Every structure is written in structure tokens, then in C-alpha cells.
């Protein structure tokens, strides 16, 4: 029996029922056997989901779930990505394939610890990303696959986030390439723990074609810009091909905030989930 099988048998997710929240489906205060804090899980179904009871859909998992949906106005800064609004418009226009979006709310003060793969002594924080990954892979994903008509294989499953959520998404892609075949890395915090994530790429043994990666950054993000450029060069050296399984975008003047990420999330969706004709 593999370590993953052992984890799956020992893992239990404790959703306190699902509730309709406008156009979304909300699982409030989902408990995990791996982390001490509960996480809200919010699901956005694609247009037409209820009409065709036989169709199955790819899934995109998103971190910082408080910040990504227009129809879930819980963003601490009052600004969301609006990926639900953007994705629906692109789906209606036939520019992206219909996708189930699943947002996992962060744990507030514990966000830094949960979103980082190592302990960074310079910040006296971090190192719980593997536990978060077990929650997502062995608890939340099986819940979503059980309750919704999903395409559960890796090439139909994406994970994404911004800032530390981008760092976390890359770590999860490297750790679980058999689960996540598409990554959305928006302004990732490559700087964490002396750019540890760049060194982790050397441990990636799956064929690079198994991961389709979107990577972006704003030129107004001085700290993030240097790390994103380094990460892009590293990915190219490791075999990813720009324009094919890797898309890199620098946005002139863009800052490190939800408004900037929302402005380009449509491009992310079109690269990771292009319409199938």
C-alpha cells in the first residue's frame, strides 16, 4: 500500500451540509483531519450543468476562496477576482470549455503557514503546505468528485492561486502531478525561503508535458517580478515550451492585488481550458 493510500484511508472530511448561496454552492466550515482550522468551500457550476445530467466537467481548484467570486462578497479588501463572472461569459461565448470552479477559503492568520511548503526562518512562519495538500487531495477533491459530475483525471483538474497561493499551487503540482495537470500561477511568491520552490523543481520527475502552466506577474510588483522571471527561465530549462505547455505574461504596470489578477483571469482560463471544437 502506498503512502497516498494510507493517507486516503485515514483521512476524513467533515462538511456541515451544502447550501445555495446565490449562484454558488457553499460548504461552510469544512473540517479536515490534517489541519486544525475549518475552511469554507465554494463551488461555482458552469452554465447548463443542470440541463444535461450525463455530461461531466473539468474542475479548477482555487486558493484564497474569499477573494475570487463576485457572487460571494466576502473579500476582506472589498475586491474580488470575479472569476465566476468572467468564466461564465467566456463559456457562453464558446471561448473556454465549461468548468466547475471550486474555491477554498483561507484560514486567516494561519494562511501563511498553510500556503508555504517550508519553514522560513526569516519570517518565523510556514511549512504546512503538505498538510494543506493532503486536505485538498484526499478530502476536498473526493467530496467534489462525489457530489458533482466531474472529470477527475489530472489533465482535467487544475489548481491555482495568487501570491502565496501561486507558490502553493506550484508546490502541489510538483508533488501531485498525477492529480493536477494544469497550474495557474498568478504573481507567485517565488521569493519564499530563499526561492526554495525553484530548487524543488529539480525533484520533479514526471514528464513536463504532464503539467500545463500559466505564469504571470505585473511589472509593478518589483519583488515578485524577479522571482517570476527566474521561475520562467527555470521552467524553460526543464523542458516546458513557451506557447505550448507554458504561458508567461508580464503585465505592464500591474500591481499585486485582486483587481490586477481579476483583469487577467480570463486569459488564464482560455489558456488552461480552451474551448474544444
Low-confidence parts? 1-16
CATH architecture: 3-Layer(aba) Sandwich
* Alpha-carbon distance between the two ends: 41 Å
| Largest pleated sheet | 10 strands, mixed
Tally of helical segments: 8
Using the CA coordinates, give the radius of gyration.
Answer: 17 Å
Write the CATH homologous superfamily: Alpha/Beta hydrolase fold, catalytic domain
CATH fold naming: Rossmann fold
User: Strand fraction band?
Assistant: 15-25%
Structural class: alpha/beta
Q: Globular, elongated, flat, extended or rod-shaped: what is the shape?
A: globular
> What is the number of domains?
1
Global mean pLDDT: 90
Number of strands: 12
Task: Please trace the helix and strand order, writing H or E for each element.
Answer: HEEEEEHEHEEHEHEHEHEH
Query: What is the percent of helical residues?
Result: 25-40%
CATH class division? Alpha Beta
Describe the structure.
- This protein is α/β, with parallel strands linked by helices and 277 residues long.
- The chain has one domain (3-272): 3-Layer(aba) Sandwich (Rossmann fold), CATH 3.40.50.1820.
- The protein is 34% helix and 21% strand.
- It has helices spanning 3-10, 83-92, 111-114, 129-147, 164-175, 192-200, 222-237, 258-272; strands spanning 13-14, 19-21, 24-32, 39-44, 59-62, 100-104, 119-120, 125-126, 157-162, 182-186, 212-218, 246-251.
- α2 packs parallel to α8 (258-272).
- The longest helix is centred in the middle third of the chain and has 19 residues, at 129-147.
- It starts with a helix and ends in a 5-residue tail after the last helix.
- Residues 1-16 have low confidence and may be disordered.
Amino acid at each position: 500500500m502506498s503512502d497516498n493510500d494510507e493517507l486516503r484511508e485515514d483521512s476524513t472530511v467533515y462538511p456541515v451540509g451544502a447550501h445555495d448561496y446565490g449562484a454558488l454552492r457553499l460548504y461552510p466550515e469544512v473540517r479536515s483531519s490534517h489541519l486544525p482550522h475549518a475552511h469554507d468551500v465554494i463551488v461555482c457550476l458552469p452554465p447548463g450543468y443542470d440541463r444535461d445530467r450525463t455530461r461531466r466537467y473539468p474542475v479548477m481548484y482555487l486558493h484564497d476562496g474569499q477573494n475570487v467570486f463576485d457572487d460571494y462578497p466576502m473579500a476582506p479588501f472589498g475586491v474580488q477576482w470575479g472569476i465566476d463572472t468572467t468564466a461564465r461569459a467566456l463559456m457562453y461565448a464558446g471561448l473556454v470549455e465549461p468548468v466547475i470552479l471550486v474555491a477554498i477559503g483561507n484560514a486567516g492568520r494561519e494562511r501563511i503557514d498553510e500556503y508555504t511548503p517550508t519553514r522560513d526562518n526569516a519570517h518565523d512562519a510556514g511549512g504546512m503546505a503538505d498538510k494543506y495538500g493532503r486536505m485538498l487531495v484526499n478530502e476536498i477533491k473526493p467530496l467534489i468528485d462525489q457530489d458533482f459530475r466531474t472529470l477527475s483525471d489530472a489533465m482535467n483538474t487544475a489548481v491555482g492561486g495568487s501570491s502565496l497561493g501561486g507558490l502553493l499551487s506550484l508546490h502541489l503540482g510538483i508533488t501531485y502531478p498525477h492529480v493536477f495537470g494544469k497550474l495557474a500561477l498568478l504573481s507567485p511568491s517565488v521569493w519564499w525561503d530563499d526561492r526554495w520552490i525553484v530548487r524543488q523543481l529539480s525533484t520533479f520527475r514526471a514528464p513536463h508535458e504532464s503539467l500545463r502552466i500559466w505564469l504571470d506577474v505585473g511589472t509593478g510588483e518589483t519583488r515578485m517580478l524577479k522571482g517570476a522571471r527566474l521561475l520562467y527561465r527555470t521552467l524553460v530549462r526543464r523542458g516546458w515550451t513557451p506557447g505550448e505547455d507554458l504561458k508567461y505574461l508580464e503585465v505592464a504596470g500591474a500591481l499585486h492585488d485582486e483587481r490586477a489578477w481579476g483583469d487577467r483571469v480570463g486569459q488564464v482560463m482560455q489558456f488552461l481550458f480552451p474551448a474544444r471544437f
